[in-house]
Amino acid sequence: MTLPEQIEQKKNMSPGSPLSALKAGLAPGPACGGIQLASCLTLARGRVHEIMGDSADVFALMVAGVADGPVYWIGSWREIESLSPTGIEDFLDPSRFVLTCCLNRGETLWAAEQALRARSAACVIAQLQDGPDLRESRRLQIAAEEGGAVGLTLLRGRAGNSAAETRWQCMARPEGGWEWICTKHKRGMPGAWRVSWRGKHHAPDLVPLAATASA
Amino acid sequence: MRRILSLWLPRLPLERRIRLGDARTEGAFAIVAESRNAWRLTHLSEAAGKAGLVPGLSLTDARAICPSLLTEPADPSREGALLRALWRWSDQFAPRVALAPPDGLVLDISGCAHLFGGERAMAETLLQRAGDLRFTARIGIADTKGAASALARFEAAPVAIAKPGETARALEPLPVAALGLDPALLNDIRRAGFQTIGQLYGIRSAELARRFGLALTHYLDRALERVPDPVVPASADPVYAARATLPDPIGLQADLEEVILRLAGAVCQRLGTAGCGARRYHLLVRPVDRPDEVMTVGFARPNATPGAVLQQFRRPLDKLKLAFGADFFRLSAESIEPLHPRQAGFSGAARREDDRADLVSTLGNRLGFDRVRVYAPEDSHLPEREYVTLDAMARPDAPAWQASPRARPIRLYHPPEPLRVETPGRPPLAFEWRRQLYEIARSTGPERLAGEWWQATGGAMRDYWRVETRNGPRLWLVTRPGLAEPAWYVAGQFP
Q1: Which CATH architecture has domain A37-167?
Q2: Which residues on chain A are in Cβ contact (under 8 Å) with B358?
Q3: Are B410 and A57 within 8 A, CB to CB?
């Protein structure tokens, strides 16, 4: 199908019909669904999302808690070792975790790609220092589209120019709860939310901060 | 007419040490084993024999007689493996060879002896070849297994042959112990006054059976060929391996993969027929210009799928640089375990389990299986000992998790990271950690935990404080109580 044909078909199809989107080849197969974190926030499956900030762990754990299936946490030995399942159990069952310790950035990216490509993972969390570049993130993106898992890259340092679907800045608020700022969204609007959480059996409660915020 | 050759290796455990190059065997040396509530000598070196020691002596007595005696405990499993190796070696003499543990072999040489120039020449050849391997051997040849082994063990000459049909006469002068009876039964027979096997010939079997039980008549009947006692060769250990020798060397990745797939198909088919899977596969590649390369891949679960084997070998094959190609390949399976067939359900749980095992294998084969881990709970009150991590490969099913009764951080730093106090307090009102200044807004604590005093490395008593900082992060601070100059650490981070 050539590009003009695709555009033509896009014009003809009824808006919001996932079936027609699938037929048109515009939406990748397993990526149709999303992980609904809250009533107003859905994170696309089969995509890679970038999380930054000092409480990026919490964001990742909330996403992993909602995703159903094994969770692969990939990172350096130091990062993996400091994770504590006794605290994680407030978010999800630690027996769902498979920890993968890598020695360097190359191994981490390779392991993340393998885990995303395999269909067993529901959520793949890769911890990196600096964000993946365009080529690295595109590879992760393709692997995620094949496997259908939601991929999260937790960045300690700077984010690069990447192919990530969304990018989040997560901070803990001094008065309790967190602040999530979506600084990039390929198919939606960025926004900012104040988030609170009332335990394992509740969805996080999101309150938009700015008037422009929307999911 | 059956002809049986019994090969006895009287010094097998000792000669195993000699073959290993153990220098102690040149002096007074003995192999010892535990029997009748004591360590006793079983096999002696020549020097130990000359010092006046005999087999069966207890180790304490032997040390009193010969203070310079050096000993080594018997290793039945390795000696058994050595005997098994000899069993494979001895099929050069006869097609039907059985093991007679712990130190003998039985060969059915019917119709084989003439190939070596007669029975005596055959026995001499066997002795010589065993001698080349540094084994002392004794040989008995007779019509039955019992008679041959009696001759091997109880005749003075290294080769004892009973002519066809003369078994009874050959056994006549031998002691009753040559029948290989149970020690208690042997004691009874000796107490009844029987010394040689010949003395038993005159007694009717019914009377022997009434006095000593059926075991004695069984042994006697088998030795004298009144009942059949065939040599039953043991079957070889199954080896799951396949090899390919090619007329011309190949080097292209696609060709290599095709060869591996065919070899894996052959190996996996045999594994599948046996209802087994392998946890490890070795691939030997012989490049034409270099020594052999051996690659190994592991699996999280026993596996007998050719595609999965190829999938795991793809990466090592890719790294293999073949300038001139390779023409010999051998794939062997190891760590064979039974494979339980399962029905594929509609829920996809079984398939998901397979996918998980595949992924763990893929990650483990590159990173190392010790670096793919899962959590398991532990019974302790100390935060750093409430859980352990296990190899994901060792635990194909993740262990069930038990909830911790106390609120614990999601990041736990062990050992805790020191912080620099800016404004002192209990806990400090302001501090610097990881090059960032924190001011405390609220704090809860202390939570005092005693160390595990019943363990050598139980740890000391500590006080934990849960603090909320003005910057946002909620930290877990720890200090040792009762110190004049308290040192503070960050033990963890709460969500």
Answers
A1: 3-Layer(aba) Sandwich (3.40)
A2: 118, 120
A3: yes
